[in-house]
């Protein structure tokens, strides 16, 4: 019986779990429920399968994160610690690309390829200069870096701040092997500014070539030449012979060539156009003529007779008068003709006086010479500019103590001798002043038309300067500069031959002037250095050849 009861008990169906889906509630069964608020509805619990999947996902993500931590801390921990200890940070200076130099027509004169390169035509060394590393002194007194290439001469040096740009700074992470692991810029480098120079590359090359040719043909030791725009001071050409190749100097690779430059007795690194000082001789006469007219020492039409010499009585020894020679007997000459034929006797008298003819005197000579810019730098700043020497009683006392200033000293000074020293850049600026009535500052940058040219008016009337210009034009048509008479353009000029040394066997030969005569646009100067006094060929030949070349290849420079 007991067995039968147990069997019945286990045979009875067990209580079944009630599934909520099996309960049906609706508004008819429970009319009081608000179905809009879900009253009368049962929530369905999350299924076990979803719960299990979520749990597994969390465990997987947690495992991955813990594994990464274990990888960094346990497996790679030592390597990362070693990198942290062995790597270092380095500040690296990044040098920018240097600006390009162009001529006034856009031709490249200096560029980067990737090193600095220069035009290969000769005659550009002094005006362009070259780049190089700072000296020990510069490293101590400036913020230059010892690896930085800077302008060493010429326009490269003059405009270094614009051409160099701004250095950048980069931080680099370096490992123990010296390799860059990572980097980033603190300061981004800025490339240098490109500049358009006032120079015409074609004229520059031609002027240099003609100075070189005449030096070799006639035995001159060297020479220099400048062509400048009279209204703006723009340098169209500025060259010095002998020259050097800026490419050789920039690379420094050709040691033999550099050694030859350094050992050349003609000093190829001397920029004769700016730093060279020369006895001016007769090219000083136009400026003396303007001074005499301004001081009303003489009228332009008054004549003075040149018999080939001026004899000054010697009150201490009447039997031995002082004789001051002319280079020839010119007869009666007025101011215009005196300039044309370069009469020394005429200028002796208007400079120092003679008989009834009053002279300027040495003090007025000094005053007016300085008015034309001599005795002071022009401000071109291309290289070291020497101010020159203007003889005076004070200068004589400094150089020849105890010797008084004599009348003969004034005579020699007024014709550009006796210690008188000028530079070609001073001369071309003064010539431009004769042509326009104002002094301008020479510049090596092409004018862009936005800036006003600074010009200093000269204290001369236009009529006085016109007389001087007429005398210089007469020199071309009838006088010592007839070699510059050509059909393409009317030139006004003055020549000069300055004797050198006590024996006076060598001379410097000058040619100065401007063109076109009617409406001056350009002034020029050529000096040929240390040639034989028997050599009748002068700087006029160089300028004639250049003007002939201009007539063919660049006639626009002759337009009025």
From TrEMBL:
Predominant place of localization: membrane
An MF annotation (GO) of this entry: penicillin binding
Residue spans crossing the bilayer: 50-75
Entry-linked Gene3D superfamilies: DD-peptidase/beta-lactamase superfamily, Penicillin-binding protein 2a (Domain 2)
Membrane-topology descriptor: Single-pass membrane protein
InterPro entries: Beta-lactam/transpept, Beta-lactam/transpept-like, PBP_dimer, PBP_dimer_sf, PCN-bd_Tpept
Chain ranges of the Penicillin-binding protein transpeptidase domain: 224-532
GO cellular component terms listed in the entry, alphabetical order: plasma membrane
Subcellular location: Cell membrane; Membrane
SUPFAM superfamilies recorded: beta-lactamase/transpeptidase-like, Penicillin binding protein dimerisation domain
Pfam families: PBP_dimer, Transpeptidase
Keyword terms: Cell membrane, Cell shape, Cell wall biogenesis/degradation, Membrane, Peptidoglycan synthesis, Transmembrane, Transmembrane helix
GO terms under biological process: cell wall organization; peptidoglycan biosynthetic process; regulation of cell shape
Residues covered by the Penicillin-binding protein dimerisation domain: 113-182
Superkingdom of the source species: Bacteria
Name of the protein this chain belongs to: Penicillin-binding protein 2
Organism listed in the record: Candidatus Vogelbacteria bacterium CG10_big_fil_rev_8_21_14_0_10_50_13
């Amino acid at each position: 019986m007991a067995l039968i009861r147990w069997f019945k008990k286990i045979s009875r169906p067990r209580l079944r779990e009630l599934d909520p889906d099996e309960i049906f509630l609706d508004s008819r069964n429970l009319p009081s429920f608000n179905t809009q608020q879900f009253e009368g509805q049962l929530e369905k619990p999350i299924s076990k399968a979803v719960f299990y999947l979520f749990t597994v996902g969390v465990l997987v993500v947690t495992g991955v994160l813990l594994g990464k931590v274990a990888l960094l801390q346990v497996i790679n921990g030592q390597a990362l610690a070693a990198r942290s200890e062995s790597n270092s940070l380095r500040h690296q200076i990044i040098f920018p690309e240097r600006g390009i130099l162009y001529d006034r027509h856009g031709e490249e004169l200096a560029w980067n390829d990737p090193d600095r390169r220069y035009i290969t035509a000769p005659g550009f060394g002094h005006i362009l200069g070259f780049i190089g590393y700072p000296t020990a002194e510069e490293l101590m007194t400036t913020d230059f870096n010892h690896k930085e290439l800077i302008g060493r001469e010429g326009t490269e040096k003059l405009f270094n701040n614009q051409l160099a740009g701004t250095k950048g700074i980069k931080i680099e992470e370096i490992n123990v092997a010296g390799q860059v692991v990572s980097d980033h810029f603190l300061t981004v480098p800025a490339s240098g500014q490109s500049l358009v120079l006032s120079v015409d590359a074609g004229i520059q090359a031609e002027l240099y070539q003609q100075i070189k040719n005449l030096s070799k043909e006639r035995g001159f030791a060297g020479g220099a030449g400048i062509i400048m725009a009279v209204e703006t001071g723009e340098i169209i050409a500025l060259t010095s012979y002998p020259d050097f190749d800026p490419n050789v100097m920039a690379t420094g690779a050709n040691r033999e060539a550099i050694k030859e430059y350094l050992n050349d007795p003609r000093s190829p690194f001397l920029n004769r156009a700016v730093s060279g000082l020369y006895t001016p001789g007769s090219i000083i006469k136009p400026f003396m003529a303007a001074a005499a007219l301004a001081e009303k020492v003489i009228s332009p039409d008054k004549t003075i007779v040149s018999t080939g010499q001026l004899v000054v009585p010697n009150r201490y020894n009447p039997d031995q008068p002082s004789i001051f020679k002319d280079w020839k007997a010119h007869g009666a000459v007025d101011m215009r003709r005196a300039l044309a034929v370069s009469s020394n006797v005429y200028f002796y008298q208007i400079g120092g006086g003679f008989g009834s003819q009053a002279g300027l005197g040495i003090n007025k000579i000094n005053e007016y010479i300085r008015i034309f810019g001599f005795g002071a730098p022009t401000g071109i700043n291309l290289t070291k500019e020497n101010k020159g020497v203007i003889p005076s009683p004070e200068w004589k006392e400094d150089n020849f103590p105890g010797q008084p200033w004599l009348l003969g000293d004034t005579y020699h000074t007024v014709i550009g001798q006796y210690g008188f020293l000028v530079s070609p850049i001073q001369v071309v600026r003064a010539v431009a002043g004769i042509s326009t009535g104002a002094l301008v500052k020479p510049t090596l940058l092409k004018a862009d038309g936005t800036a006003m040219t600074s010009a200093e008016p000269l204290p001369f009337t236009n009529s006085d300067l016109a007389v001087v210009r007429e005398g210089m034009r007469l020199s071309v048509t009838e006088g010592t500069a007839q070699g510059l008479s050509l059909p393409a353009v009317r030139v006004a000029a003055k020549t000069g031959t300055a004797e050198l040394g006590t024996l006076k066997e060598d001379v410097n030969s000058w040619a100065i002037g401007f063109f076109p005569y009617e409406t001056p646009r350009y002034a020029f100067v050529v000096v040929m250095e240390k040639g034989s006094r028997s050599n009748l060929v002068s700087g006029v030949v160089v300028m004639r050849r250049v003007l002939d070349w201009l007539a063919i290849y660049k006639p626009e420079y002759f337009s009025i």
